[in-house]
Design brief:
Layout lengths: L1 H39 L2 H16 L4
């Protein structure tokens, strides 16, 4: 079981670094709000984070 937890932690850290490299600090804030909202079961917080990430991804297309 510790191997799965270690692999999961490495994946999460790698994904956060990718988001920060691609979308900057605002992408990290959006990802943080989304993950906190999901863990806290707060629809408002997770929605704000999801909208921030969606705007960052769709920004060049708008």
């Amino acid at each position: 079981m510790p191997v799965i937890a270690l692999l999961s932690a490495v994946f999460v850290v790698g994904f956060e670094q990718l988001v920060q490299w691609q979308y900057g600090p605002i992408g990290i804030v959006g990802l943080l709000l989304l993950s906190i909202g999901i863990k806290a079961k707060s629809p408002a917080c997770s929605s704000i984070g999801a909208v921030m990430l969606a705007l960052m991804v769709a920004g060049p297309a708008l």
